[in-house]
Amino acid sequence: MDTTSRLLMLLEVVERGSFAKAAETRNIDRSVISKQISRLEDDLGVRLLNRTTRSFSLTAAGAEMIKKASELRQLLGETVRLAENYHQEPRGVLKITSSTIIGRRYLQPVINDFQKRFPQVEVELRLDDKLVDLVSEGFDLAFRVGEPKDSSLIARKIARNRLLILAAPEFIQTYGLPSKIEDLIDLPAASYSSTSLRVEGIRYVDQYGLPQEQKIKSVFRANDAEVLLDKTLSGTTYVLAPAFIINDEIKQGRLVPLLTDIKLQEYSAMYAVYPHRDLPVRTRLFFDAIRDHLGKETPLWESNIPGFEHMYLG
Amino acid sequence: MDTTSRLLMLLEVVERGSFAKAAETRNIDRSVISKQISRLEDDLGVRLLNRTTRSFSLTAAGAEMIKKASELRQLLGETVRLAENYHQEPRGVLKITSSTIIGRRYLQPVINDFQKRFPQVEVELRLDDKLVDLVSEGFDLAFRVGEPKDSSLIARKIARNRLLILAAPEFIQTYGLPSKIEDLIDLPAASYSSTSLRVEGIRYVDQYGLPQEQKIKSVFRANDAEVLLDKTLSGTTYVLAPAFIINDEIKQGRLVPLLTDIKLQEYSAMYAVYPHRDLPVRTRLFFDAIRDHLGKETPLWESNIPGFEHMYLG
DNA sequence: TTTAATTGATGCCATATTGGCATTAATGAA
DNA sequence: TTCATTAATGCCAATATGGCATCAATTAAA
């Protein structure tokens, strides 16, 4: 191991916040980190970290080294990617992250097929419902609902993801079929709620083309769309759900779209996110495979919703 | 050894032109280079060099990698230098190159003193009369007569280096003392001549302030100023010599300045050259030590020439 | 043409480096 | 206080590196 690798190790230690966490993400022993950072300090002749036994802070020199280490990682990444552009056959490790539902339902089938076509490519899939740092964790590709804020990343829209209002037949029997959107105000709703986002109404466009929001009476909140759908299947709530979580519940008649003649606001599409312009062959091919699988015009999941092309358009 | 080091190794191989030469400058076995380059190609998954048994050429991928490797070397260098700026005490290796005469006569005494003051600093001195590539060979500092052309380097004038016309007393006995510069045309001269520079006259400024050149009759040419001086000491030639090669020949009366009332053209000064703005402590200190040793106003060597401040000024 | 010298590749081996385990000391939280 | 967690250290096995000898290919010299 040489100075560059040690600098990258230092960067990882600082990014992760401790020697132990850095060791964990690298799957090596802490002692290795400890020894290599010490060695780096010896080589550079400068103390980089002020250590206590349970934490550390950066010295001035350390802070500068971190910046440089980050530049080095960037440049080294570019270099390796440049080399990868010369591969005719894809190889290497394809590191992907996505939310659990996207990964399980839409990526996994594509991965299975992809690795049959390209056995040389290893795949590492990290399902995580909170965002991860693509750059520092070295991901090639992320799939997310909603455009990411980090403008240093590149996001491409993969498929639209429209909304529906759904209820089970049992719910309709109990509460009657709502005929206009205002009827929803008294009906029990399941709604998405997390630390970052809390849905408290249904946004739609009225007959005059103006954006409106209909308040809802949320009786069940969760930060997992599938859980909300499950709740709705039990007949005790209706739900505002994105199309991409629908399986065959509608085809089987277990869920019914409500108020299909109102016009719902466009919902965040599914995006693919990657950290730099020039993708390695394996990433480009996987990207294409996903787009193929999800469909060009009509997303795959919309085929599970008969007549969806005429719904919620006003 | 990791990818970065291997890329730097590749760069060195390409710059030196062969595995063998790269191995030589690194003082390692050729087999190491061969193995590491192969390893690099495996890791990147790309052939970088088209090899025959006795030479190689870069592939397209190789050429791109070389560029990146060069950027990496630059960035890594900056990083290490940044760390070195935090040293309070100088340490590390000070790599210096100069012409033989400058090194032996003017650097060596300073180095001796410098290493007494800073025992932690190792010094590597390369005496070479032809220019070497500071960047690729990793030199901290070079001392040269004449401003270097490479504008990516930084050059600072260390000391002026005026010219004299010299002859031995024996020469004067034989040929008489020349009273005006035109007299030189018939007198045998020793003159500098190398593949890059051939001195064929003496440039001076006439009474009207106009630049003139007096042709000389060169009977002995060499590409080494000391040899020319030695020849002149034998009494068979006169010579146009830069002041910095004078020892105590004039003080001892073994050489006499001729035609001291003409005005000679300014000659190339001695320059210190370094490859980047922010010098490590050891380099800055050595630089200062050299300037101290050579003198602020009057260069050290001019003290060997009594009355020089009044000579050759017209 | 033959011979000699040089180049990069390869196999083998001694040595140096690395990474894992166990232990220790220090620190902060419960 | 006790307990869990952290980084440092010493020891050992596994791995990687660099040097040597050798080989095959190629070029230059005789």
From TrEMBL, chains A, B:
Keywords, in A-Z order: DNA-binding, Transcription, Transcription regulation
All copies of domain HTH lysR-type, residue ranges: 1-59
Disulfide bond recorded as keyword: no
SUPFAM superfamilies associated with the record: Periplasmic binding protein-like II, Winged helix' DNA-binding domain
Gene3D superfamilies assigned: 3.40.190.290, Winged helix-like DNA-binding domain superfamily/Winged helix DNA-binding domain
InterPro entries per UniProt: LysR-type_TF_proteobact-type, LysR_HTH_N, LysR_subst-bd, WH-like_DNA-bd_sf, WH_DNA-bd_sf
Similarity field: Belongs to the LysR transcriptional regulatory family.
Descriptive protein name: LysR family transcriptional regulator
Origin organism lineage: Bacteria, Pseudomonadati, Pseudomonadota, Gammaproteobacteria, Alteromonadales
